[in-house]
Write a structure and sequence with these properties.
The complex is a heterodimer of chains A (415) and B (240).
Chain A: H1 5-31, E1 32-35, E2 38-41, H2 44-62, H3 65-68, H4 85-100, H5 102-105, H6 108-133, H7 142-159, H8 163-182, H9 190-210, H10 212-215, E3 221-222, E4 227-228, E5 231-232, E6 242-243, H11 244-247, H12 256-281, H13 283-293, H14 295-300, H15 305-331, E7 333-334, H16 341-354, H17 359-375, H18 383-397
Parallel strand pairs in A: 5-6
Antiparallel strand pairs in A: 1-2, 3-7, 4-5
Helix pairs in contact in A: 1-2, 4-12, 6-12, 6-15, 6-16, 6-17, 7-8, 7-9, 7-15, 8-15, 12-15, 13-15, 16-17
Chain B: E1 7-16, E2 19-29, E3 34-38, H1 45-52, E4 60-65, E5 68-69, H2 75-78, E6 83-86, H3 98-104, H4 115-125, H5 127-131, H6 142-154, E7 160-164, H7 172-187, E8 191-196, H8 199-205, E9 208-213, E10 216-222, H9 223-227, H10 230-236
Parallel strand pairs in B: 3-8, 3-9, 6-7, 7-8
Antiparallel strand pairs in B: 1-2, 1-4, 4-5, 9-10
The chains are: A mainly alpha (415), B alpha/beta (240).
């Protein structure tokens, strides 16, 4: 390797320093082992960790510097070629058919994984409206997800609502909750907004957890399986019901329910993707973007900032609520455990990794973060670690996310 | 019969919480005039403009726009009544293109049919904006950004254009060019009210002027009168 001597020695010093820091940080954690009320010291573990850090840091130092520096984008590069509308529609339709036909071949397991991925795509798209388009940092998005899921489960228990009625109603209910959250935070930005929304998400979870008489508390509550025109996806119909497979003369399979939910969810995701893409170009989308950039200028221009912000919260929340309905329907059961802050963080990670404001990026990131842990089942203990690494790497190399949503600085004006 | 003023402030007093900033200010702008309000830092110039948009609304007194009481109507409703503000420090949308910035000026208009014609007129006033119409607004120079801010406010075809320190942070030559354009805008029939610290330029342009000090109007007269007024020369024009 062709490397100058000063850089080599500098790398050595830095590696040693990193090892010492690792020793200090991990020493108490891994070096002290509790034994009853006493503890004994164990030197081998922290030394191994320090040695590992030393080696990794040294190797990183040997890599060419250009690998580690943030990539400079060529801003003057011409805009990517635009597709025509009919090409997009046709492409979308083909992708939809291809994905829908997966139902015929995929196993029950992979269908449920697919459902999970689609649910996170929905969540990501919903939060992307609030965080990506309108620039309002929301750390309590899981609250709306919970409202949707519980809206379906409780709606069935108390009002006898079915799956199909729950889809629009739970979305509207979640939208309403979005507006309820929106009102007190109208004057807030950045950190303050993040703290209030974080609290809001926790309030919803705690209410669900503690209002035992209404929600069943930590024991959770059953969510009914969806039906298709009244036909049930069960081996034997419950009182008066008709099983789907008998109507169509098919053999019963337990994957039918998942296949059905997958198809409905895929359709909903496709519609939401279409709606969100259209929203960007509509006056309301432009208003969100302008509000993100400069609120005072917007107000002086006559933009109703109350309506604009509330609409972003409500729109994002109702998409989150939709995701909740499908989550409840596919699990058949909801409990507050599913709606912890970790879910909010995961969805935010999807939006940030994908690229704030980018629909394609959010879809890719959602697929990555939900399918990867399934593919790496054996390493499930390390998935949070891998998330962390992915976050750090993305933030170093692509600070604006995988798909960067930004305009070119300069373009040659036409005409 | 006396013609009605396009903008009239009657005994307007404004406070931020317990801090009183403006004390019973009386001021009016007649249609077709260029009026300027000069004053030093902290005199209450920007507060006066903000009070027109009820942000904050005056705690006493009233404000009339074309004889319509706008004293405490919501901020976003004010722009729908024929008045546009070019805010202090320009406040353009840096990540949006020049055209998109201009389009945002139409938010307040229920009827957007005049868009193309007005856009063309703005490009005639500021040819630089036409050259850079696809460019991100954040990459424009300070002077170009000020042009964009003025253009954006003109998109709503206001009868009264308010400007808050349009010379802020700009080179003297650019200031001169922008003031020349303002004169042209006024000649086309838009009434202009400029709040300025750059008293020299503003007084040269204005038909009439007010001097604001510590929240009180201390002097008023034609632009030329104030330019030669001893106190004004001492306090604002740097004469000794």
């Amino acid at each position: 390797m062709n490397m100058s001597r000063p850089r080599l020695s500098k790398t050595l010093v830095l590696s040693a320093f990193a090892a010492v820091v690792a020793l200090i940080l991990t020493g108490p954690l891994s070096g002290l082992v509790l034994e009853g009320y006493d503890f004994k010291t164990r030197f081998s573990a922290p030394l191994q960790i320090a040695a590992f850090v030393l080696i990794v840091r040294f190797i990183a130092g040997l890599l060419p510097e250009s690998w580690l520096a943030p990539r400079q984008k060529n801003e003057a590069a011409p805009r990517a070629t635009r597709f025509k509308t009919w090409q997009l529609v046709l492409g979308g339709l083909l992708v939809y058919i291809a994905l829908a036909s997966l139902v015929l071949i995929a196993s029950k397991y992979w269908l449920s994984v697919g459902i999970l991925a689609l649910i996170y795509i929905l969540l990501g798209l919903g939060l992307n409206i609030v965080v990506g388009f309108a620039g309002l940092l929301d750390l309590g998005f899981v609250g709306f997800y919970a409202v949707g899921a519980y809206g379906y489960a409780l709606g069935h228990q108390y009002l006898g609502l079915g799956f199909w009625a729950a889809i629009p109603l739970a979305a509207m209910l979640a939208g309403l909750f979005g507006m309820i959250l929106g009102f007190p935070v109208l004057r807030m930005h950045g950190d303050y907004l993040a703290i209030v929304t974080l609290g809001f998400g926790e309030i919803i979870r705690l209410v669900l957890n503690n209002w035992i008489a209404f929600t069943g508390g930590p024991n959770g509550i059953d969510a009914p399986a969806p039906t298709f025109f009244g036909w049930e996806f069960k081996a034997n119909a419950t009182q008066g019901g008709v099983p789907f497979h008998e109507v169509w003369g098919l053999d019963y399979s337990s994957g039918m329910l998942d296949g059905f939910i997958f198809l409905v969810l895929l359709t909903v995701v496709a519609l939401v993707i279409y709606a969100v893409t259209r929203l960007r170009g509509m006056p309301i989308g432009r208003a969100w973007e302008a509000l993100r950039e400069d609120e005072i200028a917007c107000r002086s221009l006559g933009l109703n900032h109350v309506f604009t912000k509330l609409s972003a919260f409500a729109m994002g929340a109702s998409i989150g609520g939709l995701a909740g309905v499908f989550f409840a329907a596919s699990q058949g059961f909801v409990s507050p455990v599913s709606f912890s802050f970790f879910e909010s963080a995961l969805v935010l990670a999807i939006v940030v990794l994908g690229g704030l404001g980018s629909v394609t990026g959010v879809i890719l990131a959602a697929l990555f973060l939900t399918l990867m842990p399934e593919a790496l089942r054996e390493f499930s203990d390390y998935r949070i670690l891998i998330f962390g690494f992915a976050m750090v790497l993305i933030m170093i190399w692509r600070p604006r996310g995988m798909i960067q949503q930004r305009r070119p600085f300069f373009t040659r004006a036409k005409g | 019969m006396k013609p009605t003023p396009i903008l009239e402030l009657k005994d307007v007093s404004v406070a931020y919480g317990p801090t009183k900033v403006l004390h019973a200010v009386n001021l009016h702008v007649m249609p077709g005039e260029i009026v300027t309000l000069i004053g030093s830092n902290g005199a209450g110039k920007t507060t006066l403009l903000k009070s027109l948009y009820s942000a904050p609304a005056p705690y006493s007194g009233s404000i009339f726009l074309n004889d319509f009481d706008i004293t405490s109507i919501p901020t976003h409703e004010v722009s729908k009544r024929g008045m546009s503000l070019v805010p202090e420090g320009r406040r353009i949308f840096p990540a949006m293109s020049v055209v998109e910035n201009l389009a945002m000026g139409l938010v307040a208009c229920a009827d957007k049919s005049h868009e193309q014609a007005t856009l063309k007129k703005i490009y005639e006033l500021f040819p630089r904006l036409y050259e850079r119409r696809e460019q991100r607004a954040g990459t424009l120079s300070g002077g170009e950004q000020q042009m964009l801010a003025i253009g954006r406010s003109m998109m709503a075809k206001p009868r009264l254009l308010l400007l808050d320190e349009p010379s802020l942070g700009l080179a003297p030559l650019i200031v001169k060019a922008i003031f020349t354009t303002l004169k042209q805008i006024a000649a086309d029939g838009t009434t202009i009210f400029i709040v300025e610290q750059n008293a020299n330029q503003a007084l040269k342009l204005a038909d009439r002027a007010y001097v604001l000090a510590n929240g009180v109007i201390t002097l008023t007269g034609s632009g030329a009168e104030l330019l030669s007024h001893d106190e004004v020369r001492k306090a604002y024009l740097g004469a000794h």
